[in-house]
Amino acid sequence: MISFKGNHSPKDVTLFAVFFYVRYSVSYRDLEEIMQERGVDVDHATLNRWGVRYSPAIAAKAEARKRPVCSSWRMDEAYLKVWDKWVYLYRAIDKYGDTVDCMLSEVRDEAAATAFFEKAIGTNALPEKVVMDKSGANLAGLTNVNIYLLLTGCWCSFIDMVQVKYLNNIVEQDHRFVKKLTRPMMGFKAFHSASATLDGIETAHMIRKGRLNQAGVLAYRQFMALAG
């Protein structure tokens, strides 16, 4: 259960605000006005703190409850701005469009790609195939994973690496949901807050896709249930 100790607003109000922000295209100032119209007086700075504090915890709960993905993945990066610097959001979905994992990185290189694949495999089963674009860094990152499998005696679990751009259209289309929500945010001010907010956005997107196997339950109710 996620602790709301020290939070002076009711749990339901807090979760409603966090869900609304990570699910719809609004800024914190927009959300401040929306909350005021519903009789809740809370400023945008507090809303920001709620998002940064609770989004990662709720995302971790969703990760533990989501249905398994299939063994064929599509991987790509999206670009986002933190302050005045471009950063990279590594994302993977399976061939049916279910979210595998995501990771925000300040750099786009072999080490970052390796870290992403290790994270994605750690929260899911080993894939049989990963489709990506022509990025040499991503290829090197997945090659590092295969080398590790070889050194640990798991050579029969080698991951098939496919670099065909048109096969990756599905993940590029999936980026649009994230970009649609981050556009009104007018750029993030800090890397940690960007990472936390994106955890929440990906969780809302996962719920939207039906990953928690709760057909007929309102998305907000699913999000709220994750907080315990």
Automatic annotation (TrEMBL):
GO terms for molecular function: DNA binding. Residues 71-210 form the DDE domain. GO terms for biological process: DNA recombination; transposition. Keywords: DNA recombination, DNA-binding, Transposition. The keyword DNA-binding applies. Transmembrane segments: none annotated. It comes from the Bacteria. It holds the Pfam family DDE_Tnp_IS240. This is DDE domain-containing protein.
